[in-house]
Amino acid sequence: MSEAMAMEHSDLTLADKETAGVNQNGQRLGTKGRRTRQRLIDVTVALLETHGLRDLTVAEVARTAETSPATFYVYFEGVPEVVLAALETAEQSNPELMNLLKLDWCGSDGLAIARKFVRAYCDAWTVHRTVFRVRNLAAEEGDQRFLEARHRAAQPILAAMMEPIKRAQDAGRVSKDLHTLSAAAAILTLLERLAAVTPLAQTDSGLTSASLIDASAHMIAHILGAA
After folding, report:
1. Rg (alpha carbons) of the chain, rounded to whole number
2. CATH assignment of 95-223?
3. Is the pLDDT of residue 208 over 60?
4. Which of 103, 120, 205, 225 has its CA 20 to 30 A from that of 44?
5. DSSP 68-123
6. Rounded CA separation 199/30 (Å)
7. CA gap 193, 157 in Å, rounded
8. Residue 76 burial (CB < 10 Å; 0-12/13-18/19+)?
9. Judging by beta carbons within 10 Å of its beta carbon (0-12, 13-18, 19+), is residue 66 exposed, middle or buried?
10. Rounded Cα distance, 13 and 17, in Å
11. Nearest-10 Cα torsion for 218, 222, 226, 227
12. Residue boundaries of the structural domains of the chain
């Protein structure tokens, strides 16, 4: 590879490489390369269920994936970059959530819709729980890459969530002084935290996953103007 080509490929962002299907050297990935890359992602995510992002080493990922650190570095700069790659395909919203937000929350079914929405969000989060947890911790520690990844993932559901809030305001069920984006962001913050902690709920004290979901649904239904 020429020096000019090497410089060009070194400037590719993670998203560029994902879209172009190239490795760290700018070489296009074949079937074997894609399998190896995905294997490294899957192994990293699995290991992060019991390891912190800072604690997990390239050597351990490579060993578990039954490959070498040298092979790892063909595809990724380090463990954080593997997580960022995993986040490229980890959706925080889905059609079910979007369709629920299109319904009329101001009627008598508002609370029932809210319960379905909260459960659906927690279910969607569970699919990618590990990478979302790692993303949020890294973002809260100030890693700009993870902050941006978190922001990108939140945009579709935030935009969709603003619509029922506006409808509730237009119907006179919610104050128009309420800033719609701030309200949507507050709901999403609640949902993110809820999805992260519900598996830890203490059943012997009456604090259960079901009771947390129900309480959250009541609060969200109120913000969205449920009857």
Report:
1. 21
2. 1.10.357.10
3. yes
4. 120
5. -HHHHHHH-SSHHHHHHHHHTT--S--HHHHHHHTS-TTSTTHHHHHHHHHHHHHH
6. 40
7. 16
8. buried
9. exposed
10. 6
11. 90
12. 3-87, 95-223
Decide: 218 and 111 in contact? Cβ < 8 Å: yes
Residue 118: CB atoms within 10 Å: 27
- For residues 167 and 184, the answer to whether their CB atoms sit within 8 Å is no
Model confidence at 31, pLDDT cuts 50, 70, 90, reads: confident
**What's at 163, amino acid-wise?**
E
pLDDT in tens, 39-79: 999 999 999 999 999 999 999 999 999 999 999 999 999 99
Pairwise CA distance, residues 7 & 181, whole Å: 41
Q: Which residue has the tokens 């559901």?
A: 157
DSSP 26: S
Unique residue bearing structure tokens 């993670």: 14
Which amino acid does the sequence have at 164? P
Distance CA 100, CA 150 (A): 22
What share of the chain has pLDDT > 70, as a percent? 88
Task: Please determine, for residue 12, whether its predicted confidence score (pLDDT) is greater than 60.
Answer: no
- 114: Cβ contacts below 8 Å, ≥ 6 apart: 105, 217, 218, 220, 221, 224, 226
Residue of 96, 64, 99 lying closest to 82 (CA atoms): 64
